[in-house]
Amino acid sequence: MSFTDPVSATDKNLDSACAAVATEIARTDGKASLLLAFNGAVLAGLASVADNNLPLTTKAFGAAAVLALGAAAVLLLLVVRPRLSGHDKASFPYWARLDEDEIRASMQSDTRAARIRVLSVLAIRKYQRLRHAVHLSLAALALLHLAAATALI
Questions:
Q1: SS3 letters for 13-81?
Q2: How many helices (H) and strands (E) does the chain have?
Q3: Taking all residues of the chain, what is their mean pLDDT, rounded to a whole number?
Q4: Would you indicate the residue range of the signal peptide (predicted)?
Q5: How many Å apart are CA 38 and CA 11, to the nearest integer?
Q6: Fewest CB atoms within 10 A around its CB: which of 8, 43, 55, 135?
Q7: Is 86 left (phi over 0), alpha (psi -120 to 50) or beta?
């Protein structure tokens, strides 16, 4: 018969949850970086054809696509923007304001649960912005499709 120490199981679960949330944050930053590069490439391509003599409808759809890509880029920049407020007591921005003795005193208690909460809120915000940016990028691609279709008419 095996016996599992509940404190050890809690410690293991807290450590695992901290690592999982940190991994999710890293994933959002990586995805945002890829989407920023994609949107930048599309915007650069649009800039190269902006001065062409195109039908008004094509220009209107193209302008709407540029606005959507710009809004997506803003959201993606907010995803990768560092959060340095440090109001919680479980993050490095908070610890940066402490002296060595205050850091030692703050380490007397287990802050993993607080860290999990703070990082989870941060991860959710990042994923929400990432999701909205993807929707805007898809809308921009649909608008570019319409712009291309009207250019052929």
A1: HHHHHHHHHHHHHHHHHHHHHHHHHHHHHHHHHHHHHCCCCCCHHHHHHHHHHHHHHHHHHHHHHHHHC
A2: 5, 0
A3: 91
A4: none
A5: 41
A6: 8
A7: left
Q: Which amino acid is at 111?
A: T
For the chain, list residues with pLDDT below 70. Answer: 1-7, 86
Burial of 24 (0-12, 13-18, 19+ CB in 10 A): middle
* Burial class (CB within 10 angstroms; exposed 0-12, middle 13-18, buried 19+) of 82: exposed
Residue type, 89: K
Q: How far apart are CA 146 and CA 59, in angstroms?
A: 10
Distance CA 17, CA 13 (A): 6
Q: Do the beta carbons of residue 65 and residue 140 sit within 8 Å?
A: yes
pLDDT at 104: 92
123, containing H or E segment: helix 112-151
